[in-house]
Amino acid sequence: MFDVNVSKFIEMCEWDTARFLIFSDNVFGSLIYYSHLLPLIASLILAIFVFYKNSKTSATRWLLIVSLLISIWLFSDLVLWATEKPSYVMFFWTITIVTEPMIYVVVISFLYTFLKDKDISFLQRLVAYALLLPIVILLPTEFAIQSFNLSNCEREVIEGPLVFYGYIIETLFILWIIIFAVRQFQKGINKDEKRKIALSLVGVFLFLASFTLGNLIGSFTGNWEIGQYGLFGIPIFLGFLGYLIIRYRAFNIKVVGTQMLVAAMWIALLSLLFIRTIENVRIIIFPTLILLLITGVFLVRGVKKEVKQKEDLQNSAEELYGKNFEIVVKNKTLSLLERLYETSIQKLEPEQMAKSINDIILEDLKLEFTGIYIFKKESDTLIPLAFSKSEKLMKTLYKLGFLLSSIKITDVSRRDFFRQTIYNQTYNTTNNLKEVWNGLITFEHLEEMEKESHIKTVLVNPLIISGEVFGALLLGFNRDYETLNTFEKASIRSFINVIALSLDKAYLYKNLQESYEITKRAYAVEKKAKEELANLDKTKNQFLLTVQHHLRTPLTSMMGYSDLLLKGNFGKQNKKTTEVIQRFKISTQGLIKMVNDFLDITQFQLGKSVIITKPGVELLPILDEIVNELTFKAGSKGIYLKFEKPTENFKIKADREKLKAAIYNVFDNAVKYTEKGGVTIKIKNQISNVKNGENDKVIIGVKDTGIGIPKEKINNIFNQIFERTEEAKRVSSVGSGVGLYLSGQIIKSHNGKVWVESEGEGKGSTFYIELLISNV
Amino acid sequence: MDKKSRTLVIVFIIILFFSVAFSFYKYIIIKDIDFYINEKEFYEFLLEE
Question: N or C end of chain B, less CB within 10 A?
């Protein structure tokens, strides 16, 4: 309580008791004071609204702080005018002293962030706060307020030197703003930007001029009533700033801001009507009020229309941006797929390909790591095929002293994170590194890695081919997987399929190459073996040729000597000796024939031609000769040899002697292996289609009732040296098995055919020889 | 806002808070107020009113 003397003076002033600090009859011109309440609330709502809509920009944050400080200042000012308590006057007066210069500093911060998109520097802030510091520190002392003035009943204080210090630093702040404004204006690139700067500065100066001027007048003259009109600068200032933010930052709140501005100005002007002391002002204010009301309505309508247009424009722009973004992501995906495709062509080894794929994805998606693993079902393990890391992660791992690239992920089916991917074939994500490498890396390392690295999310995707998971792709993101948009996720899905296909191709290539190498080696071995065999065969044939040639010469001599003996050139031989010589001659003849046969066969096998054909060779005489030669042999065996001779003769192109030998072999063969019945020879002329350029053919059929030929040997009888059957050996002890083979070769050399038909052993055979008729 | 600036703002706010709190304590709680009264001026004022 104050002393009695002071209380007496206070009582004499008859001040009204204030309700809620600000409502009392003590105020000058009630309506003008309370009209400040509306702009105060409006400015607060506007600032909060702008901040809510644009909370990420520093400018809106500073605007909110300016509004809060102005609200505190206005509220304190209202209390000063309404309260009857000196203690409240003293306290709230100090509040106005401290908030006033602070408003300047915050306005500077706002201007910097709004016009320059950059807050004031640390040094600038330090200077500003250093200037504010004396006011803040000395606020509760007599330097700020010396005493409560009871010499009149105006509830005033006697201000200390700190207030005047405050005016000095406010002037400095104004100078700061002017210099900054001029510089920014000079830097302004286009008209729009310059207008923005100019409007901001007009708003700030209107506010500062009206706000500061009133206080200066109050401080120097003691007339605080004039200062109240200066407070109208506050809503104007906020309106300006609000408009600017709306104009340049957030169009959707323009209507609210404009409406608030119009309402605040209308209420402020209306309050002037109630000022008794300025009678003449009413005449000017009333029509102004009407005009403002009308313009306000038009302004709000205009702004609404503009906002709608701009909203439509913004929606279109957003839609366009969305589409553009989609195109950009699709383009990026395409480019990535193209690079992956190129890699899949250039790199053929799975390891090399996986490494290249990892590097491309890591770079393109700016990942922390990428790992391609191959799943081994039998050991339930994911084995790393290739692993790539960002530089940051590489440094972290180097610091921690371990590698991620060589770690095999074992017990896949027991790890929740991988089980879903490998066995359910779906992707999985985690923000917890322990879920990925738990038990494979020490807990401490995992903790440190989580702390030190930039890995936020790990994504695992199955690599599937033909419905089977053959591996997994592990991706480490430095952001949450959920922050990826739909297109980015779709992009990942598409390149995973490409990776799976590329790797599958690489493995196929690898397997193919391995098989190819094996085949190549086998082929080389076979080739060598063939070459050796061919050499061997050639050597063998050469050897046979040499041996036979050397055999034939003495045999021919033996034949010659036999003939000479039989002719009696060495004296007359007795009957017994003649018989022996004849047998000797026959054996030698057989031997010569055999040697000749072998010689011919060898010549055929060596690819040497032993046939010299001549046209116009008559066939029937050859057949007659053979039949005559064999008739005695057949008769001696008790079988018949029948030749059904045709009426016409056939001329063929042939090596007469060789062909005769060949046909002889066939006929002789029939006689040799027939024990009962006999052999019938028939000739058939087959006339061919002249249009096709084919020649007429003659077919010689030799049917016997002999031992027949087993079915399994029938096809090879003319193709290889024949191994005689047991039955054949029994029937005839003579025979090398080469006769028919040689006949086949000779007939083929005459462009003819030879074949045999037999029902089987003991059922006889029919041999056919087909030769081309040559009429030339 | 960088780290240094943020520290500066926080320090400033703390000083401001204590200063305002002390003013509140001085003027509102203990009512430590000096009154200046010029009685002659006061009565003249009353007469004018």
Answer: C
Token pair 């080739």: residue: A527
Q: Predicted ipTM?
A: 0.94
Nearest to A539 by CA among A607, A606, A610: A606
Q: A504-607 sits in which CATH class?
A: mainly alpha
Q: What chain A residue is nearest to B45 in terms of C-alpha separation?
A: A152
| B29 pLDDT tier (thresholds 50, 70, 90) | very high
Kind plus residue range of the DSSP H or E element containing A156: strand A156-159
- Cβ contacts below 8 Å, chain A against chain B, sum to 95
DSSP secondary structure letter of residue A534 = H
What is the CATH T-level fold of the domain A611-772, as seen in this structure?
Heat Shock Protein 90 (3.30.565)
Per-run averaged pLDDT (10 residues), chain A, 776 residues: 70 80 71 63 70 71 84 86 88 93 90 82 92 94 90 85 91 88 76 74 73 71 65 62 57 54 60 49 58 68 78 87 82 81 79 86 86 89 89 83 82 87 87 84 81 84 86 88 77 81 83 86 90 84 74 83 86 86 85 79 74 87 90 89 86 88 89 90 74 73 89 76 62 66 86 88 89 78
CATH class of A29-253: mainly alpha
* Pairing status of strand A678-686 against strand A697-704: antiparallel
Per-residue pLDDT tens digits for A297-335: 766 777 778 778 888 888 888 888 888 887 887 787 888
Yes or no: is domain A347-484 CATH 3.30.450.40? yes
- Chain A residues touching residue B39 (CB < 8 angstroms): 151
- A147's enclosing H/E stretch is strand A145-149
* Residues of chain A above pLDDT 90, percent: 12
Q: Which of residues 1-49 of B touch A (CB under 8 A)?
A: 1-2, 4-5, 8-9, 12, 15-16, 19-20, 22-24, 26-28, 31, 33-39, 41-42, 45-46, 49
Domain ranges (residues) in chain A: 29-253, 347-484, 504-607, 611-772
**Three-class SS state of A213:** helix
Residues 6+ apart with CB under 8 A from A192: none
End-to-end CA distance of chain B: 55
Sign of dihedral through CA atoms A292, A296, A297, A301? positive
